[in-house]
Amino acid sequence: MPDSYPRPAYTAEQALTRLKQGNERFLAGKARFPTVQKEVLADLATGQTPYATILGCSDSRVPPELVFDAGFGELFIIRVAGNVLGPTIAGTLQYAGAHLHTPLFVVMGHEGCGAVKAALASKFLGVEHGSRIEILLENIVPALDHLDPNLPPEHLLRAAVEANVRWTLHQLRDSPEGRVALTRNDIRLVGAIYELGSGRVQFLED
Question: Does residue 192 lie in a domain region?
Fold first, then answer.
């Protein structure tokens, strides 16, 4: 594992703009999706300089490279059910910051997330899941503490998805590594929600 890769040629703001522009191309049906030429692959084999790191859900309907119309080597992707934070995920994020120098970090949830729905059932209905799934849900349940269980199910799930993204953001900002990293002006951490029906990514306000 290399000690460090070259820094990307984009600031955090420029990286966020690229994600937004890519999602607009995706929405407009003008995504690039080019066939990658051998010369490009050969160049990427020497190193990577992704402009953004995305922590997203494993859901097969939410592939970040397609959603943001990004090419090979442009995004560093971490995917786990419920876009939750755990030790290995945190280590991967730290690697992205310390060695890949990505200026932008995005935690992206999505509408109708099954992991969040399972966490709601566990917290409010006492539903039990498999032992490994329970471990996963333990990372989501704290995000649901301030939600009203009497909301209509669709509204409750939507609120829970956003709360889960914000909970992950909070954990990252509150970690020792996060507190140090975010004191730098060239690093930005944002949340986002992917709309399954429209394909639009909504970036959350702080």
Answer: yes
CA distance 188 to 105: 6
Q: Is 5 within the bounds of a domain?
A: no
Question: 163-195, pLDDT tens digit by residue?
Answer: 999 999 999 999 888 888 888 878 899 999 999
How is residue 96 annotated by DSSP?
Answer: I
Q: What is the pLDDT of residues 35-46, one digit of tens each?
A: 566 676 677 777
Element spanning 22, H or E: helix 12-27
CB 190 within 8 A of CB 58: no
- Do the beta carbons of residue 106 and residue 54 sit within 8 Å? yes
**Does residue 3 belong to any structural domain of this protein?**
no
Instruction: List Cα–Cα distances, 14 to 102, 120, 159, 198, in angstroms.
Output: 12, 36, 29, 24
Q: How many domains is the chain partitioned into structurally?
A: 1
Within the chain, how many helices (H) and strands (E) appear?
8, 5
DSSP assigned state of 7: P
Residue 137 to residue 141: CA distance in whole angstroms: 6
Terminal CA-to-CA distance of the chain, rounded, Å?
Answer: 34
Q: Which domain holds residue 152?
A: 12-203
Dist. CA 169–CA 10, nearest whole Å: 22
**Helices marked H in 71-146 — which ranges?**
87-95, 114-125, 131-137
